[in-house]
Each structure stands twice: as C-alpha cells, then as structure tokens.
Amino acid sequence: MKLFGDLYNENYVQAQLNKFHNRKLNHWAPRIAKVFDLVSQLDLRGSGEQVLDLGTSIGTYAYEFAVRGYNVTGIDLDEKSISIARKIAEGDGKNINYIVGDVSDRSNFKDNEFDLIYAGDIIEHLENDLLLKTMSNCFSWLKPGGFFVFHTVPTKYDLIFHKSFLWICLVPFCLLPDRLFKKFTGILYRVLNLGLKIFTGKSWQDREKQSVHCNLQTKESLFDILIREGFKVKSIELAIIEERFRQEFKMFLFGRREYFQKDIFGVAVREDEPEKCI
Q1: Is CATH 3.40.50.1820 the classification given to domain 4-156+215-269?
Q2: Residue 204 near residue 185 (C-beta atoms within 8 A)
Q3: Which end of the chain is less packed: N or C, by CB atoms within 10 Å?
C-alpha cells in the first residue's frame, strides 16, 4: 500500500495550487458553480454560519465559502497544503481557520459545531473504514438541522466509460432498461477485475486502492452510507460536469445511464432526532 506522502507529494500539491489560481477557467469552474447552486437552495442566511471544508487541501472551497460571507474552517492532513492555504487566505485578507488534522478523528471538533459541512474531492480519497468514520464524525459535528453537502468524482465505473474503450462491449445493451444495463455493466467490471487478477496478479480495484482515488462510489453505495450514519438524504444528482467527457456519440448511447455519469452531487441533513441504522 502506498503511503500518504507518496500519493500527496509536492507535485500533487503544486497541481492543486495551479488549479486554484486558474479555477475560473478550468474544470473547477462548473464544479464550484454547481456546489454553490446547491448551497443557495438551503435554509441558510449566507453570512455568519459555521462551515467546515473537509479535506480542504490548499483551501479552494474554504476560500469560496469565505468570499460568500461564511465563517469557515478547513481541515486537511497535509501540513504543506494547509501552509499554502493559510498564505492564500492571509494574502487576500480572508479570515479562515485552517487545521492540520485527520478527518476520521472525532476529537478534532466539538459535537454540534457546524451549520454546514462540505465534502468535495475527498470521499473518493478515503479508504472505506476511514470514510465510514468520517461520515459518522460529520454527523456528530453538524448541528441538528445542519447540512452535509458533497461532491465525488469519478464514479465506480469510470474505467469502462471514460478511461478505456471497454464501453464498446456495452453498446449491444444500450437499449435495455437501466436496471438490466447496470447488471451487464457490473458483469463486465467483475470480468475485467478477474482477468487482470489472473494474468497480472492485481485487479483494477487493487490498483485503484493504491491511487489517490481509492474508493469510487455509485449513487446507491453513497446513499447507503449516508443513511447508515443517520442522515436524511435531501438530494443526489448525477452529472457529467466537464464538457470534455461529453462526447456526442457516447452521450447519445449512454447519456441517461446512471453508471455512465462521472459526478455525484448531493445534500444530506442531520435531523433533530436521528435514528442511526445498525
């Protein structure tokens, strides 16, 4: 298993910083627009609420929340990223509280501390045990009635539809109901993993677990995790936000297929008297 420092090295941090500086022109622009469109629909005053940016990295979303008047805390495990985030905030006169910490550690914050927690570009980076702990923490850190806003990209079947030509194998099934199409997609994915395991000793899922995107989700899997941790799911939306992945022919064949989508956006809420699923 690769270590944190090997995956989130100086090159990774520099890439995030470059994306921040170009965020109005690059693929971050539609993501940011979508997230704040979701936030604008929530029952928030827009000023003074306590917001936590989970896995903040160099602080892109923490900065965007601060610009909009929220009281923002950002947390990340990487000291170098937090150092850069602090310099950006100080240079632009933004009062953002940045913390170096492990999001799976409950002791980082008090219970009932935040009105909104944003989890963008982090769900897919956490191994499953850490993800479950983090979701549980978020539920506790939110005030009753507080919102958990999330975005994860890519999704589980990204390899088939967007990283290879394996999608061609599914063309004969593209007219089937989505329920059956999903079954055939799952079969293809399992066959791929088995074949790679037999011939190379390492399945695709094994390879993913050693990458930064180690835990890709589906709409169903993410919904189940949220419900298990006691959240009420207000919305889950599937999309392909980046125009470069919206190739005309593939959109014609698979555009309405759930497993073809790259992005999962959504909002969950901590209700006043939650009942956690066991």
Answers
A1: no
A2: no
A3: C
Q: What digits encode the pLDDT tens for the residues 113-170?
A: 999 999 999 999 999 999 999 999 999 999 999 999 999 999 999 999 999 999 999 9
**Chain-centroid distance, C-alpha 234:** 17
Q: In the chain, what are the domain boundaries?
A: 4-156+215-269, 160-200
Angle at Cα 1 formed by Cα 215 and Cα 17, nearest 5°?
Answer: 65
